[in-house]
Design goal:
Helix content is about 5%, strand content about 30%. The chain is mainly beta and about 525 residues long. Strands 12-11-13 form a three-stranded antiparallel β-sheet. The radius of gyration is 44 Å and the shape is rod-shaped.
Length: about 525
């Protein structure tokens, strides 16, 4: 607002002449024979507590009949001000000394074209109560005093104390300004009361006030094409926020308040359709915050972080957990949420391969598992086809469908058996051949967690398929020998019919008289 002044306009020469002219008669009119201006009625008595006009000016006669000067006048429910010459002022700011308990040196009043002080009649601040003066908006209390600082709309009073800003609705500048703030305003406030009294003291925040001076809080707001978020106290959120249009508080929010988490740039504008590499806020995830653990997050077109699902971004698919962190490695759904951890803490890839198969089997037959690149800093996208995946004990070959789901059972495309994505094959350290267990009613379906079986014990029961070190099914094999000198006989599906330390023959002779009945009923002979 333009600089206000305590100096008010002096009476014009015309007004003074008007007073002088009326003083020469004892008829009703002005008189200064006592040394003080009075207005006498037709009886020669001084008029009291009333207004009288001279020329273009109004003057007030006090209770003793003397013309009031430099004084605030209450007339009924209205307030007026007369200057040092006694003339009522209009369309003018006036500063008066104050005796209220505040830091203000004086309090400002504004007197309109009718001389009445602007004041509030509703005991609360509404848009209609705001007065526009020289292009700026101001609020006044019931006594006509200009309001300043943080204002409570419901009581139309100046809020005081360190926490005045917390519940206030408006900010009207300092005591020597008082104009309603609008647009962006950076203010330093005491945050002890909203930070559990931890002694953080004063902090500086950006606030945004609408055209009527109302503080924007507990909402998101589009400003000049960008989306900004404000917490329940009106502070612009930097970095992480859960502020929403409908009321999440967005600051000091509990960790489970995750419905609309957003991430903003350093200038407060929400990221949109962008990747964010960041550590979550302390209030959102204290463990990651304490560990300074960075994750990738995806800010959607509406600014909200995508959570708990798989999303295609620029032609590639990515998985995100229930907090919105991009997931890498083996990913599945546990207790209804996407995760790369089998117990909420430990990652599947931190297990051995066999332990992973146990955990995967416990999820149930209908559970879908995926693999997302373990190089989360550079990639993190969902993979398909063959993948070499690093578990805790070694690197293992896995195979995934075109849609990213881990294959299970016999995969005709590659002619191999796969359990929860792991290609089942012999470990050369044990043997170059191994058996995997299949369903006796459906030889294309696996049974159990399907670690590889070696040697002769219970492996030639008709329910195991022979695979080599590449995982290829060994079909129609006769007397194929592994690295441990075990001979195998398989049928057209690769099912092991015989495993032993001797070769088999289709006919009996003096050199191979020992008869063996195979699981399919056929007889063979050994030495």
């Amino acid at each position: 607002m333009r600089k206000q002044t305590k100096i008010v306009a002096a009476l014009s020469a015309t007004a003074l002449l008007a007073l002088g002219a009326s003083a020469v008669t004892f008829a009703a009119g002005w008189d200064n024979s006592t040394g003080a201006w009075q207005y006498l009625d037709n009886n020669g008595s001084a008029v009291t507590d009333a207004w009288r006009k001279s020329g273009d000016y109004w003057f007030y006669l006090d209770s003793d009949g003397s013309m009031a000067t430099d004084k605030l006048i209450q007339d009924g429910d209205d307030y007026y001000y007369v200057n040092a010459d006694g003339a009522m002022v209009s369309n003018q700011w006036v500063a008066l000394a104050t005796d209220d308990d505040s830091s203000a040196e004086y309090r400002w009043f504004y007197f309109g074209s009718d001389g009445k002080a602007y004041r509030d009649h509703n005991e609360q601040v509404t848009v209609s109560d705001l007065k526009t003066i020289n292009g700026k908006k101001y609020a006044f209390d019931q006594d006509g005093k200009m309001l300043y600082g943080w204002i409570d709309k419901d009581s139309n009073t100046i809020k005081t104390g360190d926490d005045a800003w917390v519940d206030a609705d408006y900010y009207f500048g300092g005591w020597n300004d008082g104009s309603a703030q609008n647009g962006w305003v950076q203010l330093t406030v005491n945050t002890d009361s909203v930070r559990s009294g931890d002694g953080d003291g004063s902090d500086t925040f950006w606030f945004y006030f609408d055209n009527n001076g109302k503080k924007q809080s507990n909402k998101k707001k589009n400003i000049n094409g960008y989306t900004f978020y404000f917490d329940k106290y009106g502070r612009m959120i930097e970095d992480w926020s859960t502020a929403t249009k409908n009321g999440a508080d967005g600051f000091d929010t509990p960790a489970n308040a995750t419905d609309s988490i957003v991430y903003t740039n350093a200038d407060g504008a929400a990221r949109k359709n962008q990747w964010v590499w960041a550590v979550p806020s302390e209030d959102y995830d204290k463990d990651d915050y304490d560990d300074d653990s960075y994750s990738w997050w995806w800010a959607q077109g509406n600014g909200k972080i995508f959570k708990d699902g798989i999303r295609k971004i620029k032609g590639k698919s990515y998985a995100f957990d229930e907090k919105g962190r991009m997931l890498s490695g083996i990913v599945g759904v546990v207790d209804g949420h996407y995760t790369n951890r089998y117990n909420g803490k430990d990652k599947w890839l931190d297990l051995s391969k066999d332990a992973y198969l146990d955990q995967a089997a416990s999820l149930g037959a209908d559970q879908k598992l995926y693999y997302f690149s373990s190089d989360e800093k550079k990639d993190g996208s969902r993979k398909s086809g063959y993948q070499n995946v690093e578990f805790d004990d070694d690197s293992y070959q896995m195979y995934f469908k075109t849609n990213g789901e881990a294959e299970n059972n016999y995969v005709s495309k590659i002619k191999k058996y796969v359990a929860y994505g792991v290609v089942l094959k012999a470990d050369n350290e044990e043997s170059n051949l191994a058996g995997v267990q299949v369903d006796s009613a459906n030889r294309k379906k696996l049974v159990g967690r399907n670690v590889e079986y070696y040697g002769t014990a219970n492996i030639a029961d008709g329910n195991h398929v022979l695979v080599n070190a590449a995982g290829a099914v060994q079909e129609k094999k006769t007397n194929v020998k592994d690295s441990n000198d075990v001979y195998y006989l398989t049928d057209k599906d690769g099912v092991i019919l015989y495993a032993g330390d001797k070769k088999t023959y289709n006919s009996k002779s003096k050199d191979h008289e020992n008869e063996i009945t195979l699981p399919n009923g056929k007889k063979v002979y050994t030495e």
